[in-house]
Amino acid sequence: MSGCFICEKHLDMSSVPGGVIAEDEHIVVSHLPLVTPQGTAESVYLGRLVLEPRRHVEDLGELTDDQAASLGRMAARGSAALRRAAGAEHVYAAVISDAIPHIHLHLLPRYPATPREYWWVRLDEWPDAPMGGADEVAELAERLRAVA
Ligand SMILES: [Zn+2]
What we know:
The chain has helices spanning about 5-10, 65-85, 135-145; strands spanning about 20-25, 25-30, 35, 40, 45, 50-55, 90-95, 105-110, 130. It is globular, with a radius of gyration of 14 Å. It contains 3 helices and 9 strands; from the N terminus they run αββββββαβββα. By secondary structure, the chain is an alpha+beta fold. It has one domain: HIT-like (HIT family, subunit A, 2-Layer Sandwich), CATH 3.30.428.10. Strands 1-2-6-8-7 form a 5-stranded antiparallel β-sheet. A two-stranded antiparallel ribbon has the order 3-4. A two-stranded antiparallel sheet has the order 5-9. The two termini are about 30 Å apart.
């Protein structure tokens, strides 16, 4: 859809460090980019993945059965890859999509050193959170792609 950040990103994934980590005919998996409609970040929480339907969909309930099945498979594979290649001890999953209506499932890894008070929505407020710029994100994406 014209004007949609995610639809336009899918046309040119070169803006996302590490590019596509996994994909099929319905879903594209990549790392959270540094440039979003909210602004440009120098670094992002490492391992925060976004799983996005190729089709512009604004509610989980709009996914076809095949798209939903792909999303579930990709969430399982992404979670397993974060545990094997990034050292996550647990992976949270959430669809928020308040800022960008095109749904995207976030996978958020919790690392063994993460203090409890920073779990879930405050992971990137943890002062020692593993943050990375484009090079670190691209390197992690390569490790995830190798095991995804
Ligand atoms: Zn869209």
